[in-house]
TrEMBL record:
Organism, as annotated: Bradyrhizobium yuanmingense
Pfam families: Peptidase_C14, Peptidase_S74
InterPro entries linked: Caspase-like_dom_sf, Caspase-related_regulators, Pept_C14_caspase, Pept_C14_p20, S74_ICA
Source organism phylogeny: Bacteria, Pseudomonadati, Pseudomonadota, Alphaproteobacteria, Hyphomicrobiales
Name the record gives this protein: Caspase-like protein
UniProt feature coiled coil, ranges: none
Domain Caspase family p20 residues, every copy: 47-124
Length: 731
């Protein structure tokens, strides 16, 4: 089956005033006419084609539009004739728009093809693209967060269909709220920042005010065969036209029903016609389509390619570079008839022999240097867990300043495969996913990362390092769908402030709830600015798709923050545990101590911090610092400080294994913090939040922390947890 494709089409708003107001209409109604096709809920069948069509004309706070209603109605008829199950909606306010997207998103999960078409007003604000419901009352640019629908929500949904999801935006970019001025700066709502605007710094602040001389939506970048079509290229304006439909929608309507017209050619034809008709407007599409043909009217011929052979060749290009035996074995199991089977068997034997010899050296010496050398050379080896436990024990008992020395240990022999062929590429999505099945469980991050860079996929959770999709800590669209049946959430979006407050406790990362709380209270002074600033600080407003310059700057800054957190999280556990930097240990334990209920524990933790800082300051990675930090963890953090919060966010952890259940019904896990080799035993903050939300808080880094004292639990290293188990033979 060909790769799924998401396409989003937006339609431009057009003038609707009397002839004597033509000039004013061109300035004001040059905004978005966006027609959106929404799918009805159907019984899932192999050929499901769904569409949601929305035409917003009767705006309540800005001049009404005429042509969006025409564009939406005509597009709904066309798609209906093509066999799409179409839901045609008109004049949606915010809550009904949200509900329509929830229904469409649920239907899209089992659909083959999905199209979204919206006609109405749309703006760019703060580097993001927004669709405006008819009830929007935007008194300042910051209100857009609570009053408008983020384009990224539609793109998230467009990832879901199996074959195609279409997003089309016929958008004129002039500001429909041009008379609405920002209170502080007096700037137009949708205008972009001036070149003189200060760049975003690491300190959260309110959104940058915009200059009034530049207009246009921000460009987007999408994968997973999602196609986003703009009536005019990002940063330019679309014409409204003088007929029933806009130039863009009119051209699209003339060709969308043409049989066997491949989508790429469909939009090329529309591009050329609009350019010829207007002389100024140049439509644009964003996204990467698969090599296989995709049609809105018609089906692609099934390519006569050997998906299995393509998958084997593709997987081999990555597998051949790894020293992880488990990945090599998965390749052999997935492709038992492969010509590389003999090479795989030989390579596995070589690696096993080398590791066996290395482990014999470790068992003879049982030294810090031996265990560390083994872990460096064989990070995926059979004895890794035993080596880590033994190394932790030796580090804990090591004397300050004790030398570790060097050890000569043989590493994995170089591979003797034949030279690799040219880089393999394929447009066969089945082959890509079959190859991914071999690689996705690999602990060799270089293998997984290189594959994700070549074949990124949000749908299959395959995101390359540095991706803004991977950067986004929370997917608001997923939260919208998950909470769709929560009565408090629905009441919140209906304007019930009490329901908003209750919903925020249940879904603390669903940032839109906080915005709606401000909206339901009439947006008292500072409410929205504070909410947006806090959401940005926590990374909840990271833009996954838009690529305006301000968003690039903002995302780069947040990426640096995340990198610093990931680097330190293995060394600092809620300001209590550190085994690297002495100053961090001192500051962290001091913070924990100040909150500890026991003065005796405070003295013990302070002494541990002082010892750790003293040793680690000069030898940050030495055994002395590790030993001191370990004592601080086991005494001050785990037992003494009864109300210390621990970073327990699942996003900070890896190598997670379920161990059992607590007496209160919480799942207990063994895991490592990213960047730290030591294993701990504890809970996951996301799970605790559902059962005991009062025990969960958000740290300054935006990650969730758990109050272990409130849960009646001790935070332990895995080794200490094992020692507490009956019949444990660990010292």
């Amino acid at each position: 089956m060909p790769a799924h494709l998401g396409i989003f089409v937006l339609a431009s708003s057009r003038p609707v005033f009397m002839l004597q107001d033509l000039v004013r209409r061109i300035a004001v109604l040059g905004c978005v006419a966006l027609s959106m096709l929404v799918s009805t809920i159907l019984q899932a069948t192999a050929g499901d084609r769904i569409a949601l069509v929305v035409g917003n004309s009767n705006y309540r706070k800005v001049p009404k539009l005429i042509n969006p209603a025409n564009d939406a109605a005509d597009m709904a008829m066309s798609l209906g004739r093509l066999g799409y199950s179409v839901r045609h909606l008109a004049d949606l306010d915010y809550n009904h728009f949200r509900q329509a997207l929830i229904e469409f998103g649920n239907a899209a999960k089992t659909a083959d093809k999905a199209v979204i078409f919206f006609a109405g007003h749309g703006v760019e604000m703060d580097g993001k693209n927004w669709l405006i419901p008819v009830d929007a009352e935007i008194k300042s640019e910051i209100d857009v967060y609570a009053e408008a629908i983020n384009l990224e929500t539609l793109i998230d949904i467009s990832v879901m269909p199996k074959i195609i999801g279409l997003v089309v935006l016929d958008a004129c970019r002039n500001d429909p709220f041009e008379t609405t001025k920002v209170a502080a700066a007096g700037r137009a709502l949708s205008s972009r920042p001036s070149k003189a605007a200060a760049p975003v710094s690491g300190t959260p602040r309110s959104p940058t005010p915009f200059a009034a001389d530049t207009r246009g939506l921000a460009p987007v970048e999408v994968s997973d065969n999602v196609l986003v079509a703009f009536a005019a290229a990002a940063g330019t304006t679309a014409n409204d036209g003088t007929g029933r439909n806009s130039p863009y929608s009119g051209s699209l309507l003339r060709h969308v029903e043409t049989p066997q017209l491949e989508i790429n050619y469909l939009f090329r034809i529309v591009h050329d016609e609009v350019w010829k008709e207007t002389g100024t407007q140049e439509p644009a599409i964003y996204g990467t389509l698969p090599k296989g043909d995709i049609y809105l009217n018609g089906e692609a011929a099934i390519a006569s390619v050997d998906g299995g052979a393509d998958a084997e060749q593709l997987a081999w290009e990555f597998v051949r570079s790894t020293n992880e035996i488990a990945t090599l074995r998965r390749f052999a199991q997935q492709f038992p008839a492969s010509a590389h089977t003999a090479e795989i068997d030989q390579r596995i034997a070589q690696l096993q022999t080398a590791e066996t010899n290395a482990w014999k050296i470790v068992e003879r010496q049982k030294s810090l240097a031996a265990y560390r050398a083994y872990l460096d050379l064989y990070p995926f080896g059979e004895h890794v867990e035993s080596a880590r436990v033994a190394l932790a024990s030796l580090e804990k008992s090591a004397k300050p300043g004790q030398a570790t020395g060097q050890i000569d240990m043989p590493g994995p022999p170089p591979a003797s495969y034949q030279l690799a062929s040219a880089e393999t590429t394929t447009g066969n999505s089945e082959a890509v996913e079959k190859a991914w099945d071999v690689l996705k469980e690999s602990r060799d991050k270089s293998v997984v990362g290189r594959f994700a860079e070549r074949y990124p996929s949000s749908r299959h959770n395959r995101l390359p390092p540095g991706s803004d999709l991977a950067l986004r800590p929370v997917n608001s669209t997923e939260l919208m769908l998950q909470s769709a049946h929560d009565s408090d959430v629905n009441a919140c979006f209906d304007g019930d402030s009490g329901a908003c407050a209750r919903s925020i406790k249940k879904y603390p990362d669903y940032v839109q709830l906080q915005f709606q709380l401000c909206r339901s209270k009439g947006n008292p002074k500072g409410c929205m600015i504070n909410a947006v600033t806090e959401a940005r600080r926590r990374g909840l407003l990271v833009s996954a798709y838009t690529r305006s310059e301000e968003e690039k700057v903002r995302n780069r800054e947040y990426r640096r923050v995340v990198a610093r957190v990931n680097q330190n999280v293995g060394n600092v556990v809620s300001g209590v545990v550190s085994n690297v930097v002495g100053n961090v240990v001192s500051n962290a334990v001091s913070t924990a101590v100040s909150n500890a209920a026991s003065s005796a524990a405070s003295r013990a933790a302070s002494q541990a911090a002082s010892a750790a800082a003293s040793n680690a300051a000069s030898r940050s990675a030495s055994s002395a610092a590790s030993s001191a930090a370990s004592r601080a963890a086991s005494t001050a953090a785990s037992n003494a400080a009864s109300r210390v919060t621990i970073p327990s966010d699942i996003r900070l952890k890896e190598d997670i294994t379920a161990l059992g259940w607590t007496d209160t019904g919480l799942r207990l896990y063994r895991y490592r913090y990213k960047g730290d080799a030591r294993f701990y035993v504890g809970v996951m903050a996301q799970e605790v939040a559902r059962q005991t939300p009062a025990a969960v808080s958000s740290g300054v880094d935006g990650f969730l922390r758990v109050d272990y004292g409130l849960l009646g639990l001790d935070f332990l290293t895995y080794r200490d947890w094992i020692r507490r188990q009956p019949h444990s033979d660990i010292d």
